[in-house]
Structure formats: structure tokens, C-alpha cells
Predict the structure.
Amino acid sequence: MIGMIILSMNEFKENAERLSIGVKADIIYLSKRVFPDGELLVKISEPMKVRGENLVIYHKAYPNQNERLIELIQILDVVRDYGVNSIKLIIPYLPYARQDKRFLEGECITLKAILKILNQYDVDELITIDVHSEESVRKYFKARFTNLSALTEIAKCIVDKYFRGEKPVLISPDEGGYHRVKQVSEELNLNSTFIEKKRSRFTGEIKHRLVEWNSKWRNVIVLDDIISTGGTVSKLAPLLKEMGVEKMVVGATHLLMLGKAEESILKSGYLDIVGSNTIESKYSKVSTEELIIDELRKR
Ligand code: R5P
């Protein structure tokens, strides 16, 4: 393993400490001032220590993604000023990644805009967890890109708690996310399928349609990358019940849990919601630091 130093905002101390213990690396912290007009100023506690080093920047970019991205720009800028050797950037939940295409004429491709900044600062490697579309990141990010997945651990946690000795079916609520679910189903030796989802770009209205279904399926785990408003999974629930499903649980890596997400998911009939700590919530049951440590140890 090559020598590395972890760099993190004070606010992510708990996560950064776990990483530093796991990979036996020192940590340098960054602090932040917020001026009366709302502008931010990031400061490295020991700037001379980064010169010539291989830095692993750990940055949780959600919630407050707009602020977090400004911080990130400043972090990249200042470490380059101090002559860092290489930069691995870990952003567990990459915000702005869902807008990876120009869905409507005139819109910005926000993922591209964010990745351009990282390219500009010559980030040597980007590590994310269950990013919305790996393919799109690869299209716009120039250097090495590693996307880890927390979904196997999430599914295992659900099986342990709700489906011991049973074989639940893993469901992706849209075709785009099926590759993630398929991988988990192969690792855990479970059946899987996906549901066709159509969302209006104008109203946000969601419509689901079954593609492949076995009438004997009674227990399901719906697995997704993100729970935002909860609309995708809660609107799927009546269809699953109609198909004879009796026990269903939702697993998702990034729990944004906006508005009435929690209430609408649980009211729609799911027994529980299980997610990771990429975004902290009361449903964050799976820590992602181990995944990152295993990956960094490979270097
Ligand atoms: C969309 O393609 C994503 O994979 C998620 O299904 C979606 O972002 C979830 O959003 P919401 O909870 O608002 O339906």
C-alpha cells in the first residue's frame, strides 16, 4: 500500500478517523469560516504537511450540496497550491449526478459541470458509492474512477432481520438500476427482477409496469441507489401487493429522505427502510468506511 494522508473537514471527523485507523494513515483536518454575507473560507490546519504527499480527500457532499461543492473547490485549489503529489477524492454520495443528460432542451448537464471542475484540478482518482450512473461518470471524468457498492451489505442486513431462512426476491424499481441489483442477487444467490418506471420530466409523475414476474413471489426487497422523496418506492407498493407480495422492505444506499418520504414509504406497506451512512439518517444501518478501507488497501 502506498503512503497516504487523509484530508477531511472537521465535520467528518468520525468517518475520517475510521478510515485513518483502517489504512494506518495520518489525518489532516480542514476548518471553515462563514462570513456574514454567507461566503465560505476553507483552511488546512497543517498546510506544509501536504507537500509532496498522496492525499485522500474524504468529502461528504450532501446535505448542503451547494455549500459542500464550494468547499470542495477551495480544498482542491489550496492543496494544489501547497504542492500535493496526488489526489484521491472520495465523495460517498455524488450530488448533481442524476442530471447526467440534457433531458429538456436548454438544461445544464450538471454531472458534467461538476466533473469538469474535478478534471480541472487534476484529481487522480474519484471514488464514489453507488453513483447514479457509472457510465456517465466515466464519460465525463478523465482519470481513474472507482464506484463501490453498499447494496450487498444493505441486502444482507435486511435478510438477517426480516427474511432469515427465506429467499426474498430483489427488485430494482427501474431498469437503469438493475445492474446494481443483479450484482447483489448474484452475490447472495437470490432471484431478481426490475420494474419499468416512467417519470414525467414536467410533472415528476411516476408510472410503473411489470416486465417479468413469477406469481409465487411473496417476499421482496426493493433496492435502489437513492431514496429522495420516496415517490418511486411508495408508488410501486400497490403494484407489488396486487401481485401477491406479502412482506416487503426497502433498501437504498443514499437516504435523502425528503419531505414525507419516511411516512409515505412506511404507509404504503413496507416493513422497514435500510440504508447506509453516506447520508446520516435514522435508517442508516450500514457503514461504508469498511468498503472504502478495503478499496484503499488495494493500492
Ligand atoms: C432514479 O432514477 C433513482 O434511481 C431513484 O429511483 C430516485 O432518485 C428516487 O427518487 P424518489 O425517492 O424521489 O422517487
